[in-house]
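Tokens help. One example:
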Amino acid sequence: MYAEERQQAILERARRDGRVDVTGLAAEFDVTYETIRRDLTALERHGVLRRVHGGAIPVERLGFEPTLNVRDSVMTQEKERIAKAALDELPAEGAVLLDAGSTTGRLAEQLPSDRELTVVTNSLSIALTLTTRTNINLMFLGGRLRTRTQATVDGWALRSLAESFVDVAFMAANGISVERGLTTPDPAEAEVKRSMIASARRAVLLADHTKVGNDNFARFASVEDLDLIITDQGLAGGLADELETAGPRVRVV
């Protein structure tokens, strides 16, 4: 196993179990303690784990909010597949909304050039991706820019959303569970996300499997508010059925 593959497995284990320890990981991967310590140091430098005595904890459990660049560097293949699958949900013409996020950013990169679409977004990075697209009528939501996520929030964004209506809102979330719904660390972003869903005929969540079962500070929707969840094949057995029981269709890609 390559170091990158082992580190990805360590990160997934930490997010699933809430913590990993050096001794257990060394035995599981049949490598030395020092190799595992180097892996944990590398993951900490990427901003996805925090070292603690004897092991590490995912940043989500400590209340840290990874930057967009950090989130964009993990689960890359899964996010590409999810974004590609989301293309099936685009209308032939009309308006869509792209929430700020690393997977929605990949969807922006893959938007077709053979149809006219109005794209509403609060993501600075997505807006920059789409500025040269002549077939896209780009509507950028103003407001206070959160540099950590490159998302606009607060009153200006909310007022624009209150006067808008789109066919599909492609949403991002830091966590989703049947019990807690859709959550994100920042209350201001949660408020904008809530308004996004309210402005859309259909709401589609793009979320890799590491988000499922995680909870963050601010709740912005219930699972039943969604029409569709697109996730990847790493989703634990039974979770797709559990989510579908709450209302939305779940597509695993």
Observations:
- The first strand starts at residue 20 and ends at 21.
- The chain has ten helices and 15 strands.
- The mean pLDDT is 92.
